[in-house]
Model the fold of this input.
Amino acid sequence: MMDAGLKSELQKQGVFTTTLESLYNWGRRNSIWPLQFGLACCAIEMIATTMARYDLARFGAEVFRPSPRQADLMIVAGTVTKKMAPQVVRLYNQMAEPKYVIAMGACAISGGPFKQGYNVLKGIDRFIPVDVHIPGCPPRPEALIHAFMTLQQQIAAQELTGPRRPRHLQPELPSEFPVPRYGDHDLVPPKNPDRWTAPAISRSNS
Amino acid sequence: MFSLEEIKSRLEAAIPTARLEIVANPSPSGQHSLRVDRDSAVAVARLLRDHAELRFDYCSNVTGVDWLAAEWTEKVKIKQPVEGGEQEIEATRTARRPAHLEVVYHLYSMEHRQGPLILRLCTGDRTADSHLPSLTPIWRSCEFQEREVFDLFGVHFDGHPDLRRIFMWDEFKDFPMRKDYVEPDDYEYEPTPHDEVLAKARKHQLPEAPT
Done:
């Protein structure tokens, strides 16, 4: 790795140096192609984010692809019902690596206002890994843009070698996750225990 | 606009076998409804739609009600003969309601600009005899809403063209809007529970550390 001071000094002399890693991450983070799918009202905000007023194209993410094979980013925009959850996991599995997930809005994070409903999945992170969570009901377009910028920072900080390299460069880690099955009373399994376990809560009984 | 009593007498004159009953609504809205027996429901519905003076041509809403078995006491005034006339005394009486499912239809007439006329149909019980005649052949707009009532309440509509679940998946066995429905226990992570949710979340919580 080149010393930052030397790099800056060389740049002043008209010599531009970089690393393969930063070039690779720079290219990826400035052309994230999201998957074109929405689940509920958050999708309306997502659409607004792509249009002229908020203009997601400034971040290189305006190309919404209708096929998971061509998409890098899944924006889970809206309530994930238990009937829809297997399709969301299947779409994620069909996306090519490297792939990222933004859980947009209270519903995609936790079930939101429908958390106690029998038919709503309490957070998509029970089945697939989520890179950025945005709270809000629905989040404003600025919040989605902030999530994009956060994701871009995460991509920029990725190392391509070594133990901290991303999941898609570690062949032993899964890139596909089990698709839940429709059961008699609930999804089977109701969550992926390898992916998500409930954080421990201890509370006084008073 | 005809009153419910006028509609009822017209229906009874046209269909003598129909057993109709007005269910009063004591609230300020006063939307009284008409309970129709299962066997004559299709004939009553067809007459309501086709009768030149009624023309209830639009069914806007179909929904269900789950009535559990109930028993209650109520005070009634009965007249008792005493010496020199009658005396009104108050007596308590036990009333019973067997468990059943009910389907409610809201009808409007676009032609005569009247409505809603509220029809109620009751099943025999909540398990084996949960069948009702479908009114989809009369009002096409009932199709999806009867499927919804079938999905969530488990009312089987005989004569429905396509009676499948509409919200839940086909493999689902329960009827979620019934009062005795037991939902899946996925309350393992409830950071801010209260009331009923708190009771459900407690089962998943660690016992409190001794202080």
